[in-house]
Amino acid sequence: MRETTPLVHNITNYVTVNDCANILLACGGSPIMADDIEEVEDITSICQALVINIGTLNQRTIASMIKAGKKANQLGHPVILDPVGAGASHLRTGSVFKLLQEVRFDVVRGNVSEIMTVNSGAGSTKGVDASADDRALHQNTGRAIDLGRQLSRKVGAITVTTGAVDIVADPANAFVIRNGHPFLGKVSGTGCMLSAMIGAFCGANLDRRLEATAAAVCMMGIAGELAYEKTEKYQGGTAAFKIHLIDAMSQIDENILKARTRIESR
Question: Which fold has domain 7-265?
Answer without folding.
Answer: UDP-N-acetylmuramoyl-L-alanine:D-glutamate ligase (3.40.1190)
